[in-house]
Hints:
Layout: H1 9-31, E1 41-46, E2 52-57, E3 70-75, H2 93-98, E4 104-108, H3 111-118, E5 123-124, E6 138-139, E7 141-142, H4 149-159, E8 165-168, E9 173-177, H5 181-200, H6 214-221, E10 230-231, E11 237-238, H7 242-245
Parallel strand pairs: 7-8
Antiparallel strand pairs: 1-2, 1-4, 2-3, 4-9, 5-6, 8-9, 10-11
Amino acid sequence: MSAQSGLSPETIAFIVEQEQDARRAFRLLRETRTISASGTLFIAVRIPGEDKIITFNYLGLWADDPDAPQTAVIDFDGNSYWHNKPGGAARYAKLFRTHEGVQAVSHVHTPHLGAYSQAHAKLPLLYVPNRRFRFTSELPVYINRRQPEVDFILDSIGADREVPGIVEANGGATVWSWKGLRDLVNNIVLLEEGAQFQILSQALGGSQPFGPGVLEQQWKMGKLVPPDASVSDDGTIQYATAVAAE
């Protein structure tokens, strides 16, 4: 990277670190068959303390090294700081600009989230790992493409700050993280896994609502509620003290 890039040594070191994680993520998602064979996948990561994002594009079937990401850096206005084009991830700059806490986002095509997308169906989060760290009960589905996808995402976060992603009708899914690239990849894997299990369960009558005590157990494991709180089976929380409720 040349000195004319406008990127500090600290920023370049962060980019190199994230690029290594992106390489591992691409391999993990491919080897676990989380991504579909055509390989539609890109990831964008916020650069700490700057109005810039790194984008990593998966090059897919014909790449000599399929784990090597195509890396680019842009600011929130679309100005480039890297020699590669940012690809589709540039359209999420508004998400990063609007929500300072969002650290990473990915658009990805996976087989079972893709099945929900083809059905124009919201994804109920009935797989317990997808509820352990959030109160959100479903992923919304983005159908009307006359509204930009990023605006639909912003509306979805406005309605439920903990929602981790959306299903894109007739496409794949877009997933984000408030923690970073590794947490983002974990979210993708678990959402796809939950969608897979829920589809497989159709042969046995379909996914059922959570049984008694499941939400209380999961939310206490995920530290969403304190150990002395009680959670009803419909998700209503009763805190032990008024102070805890605040």
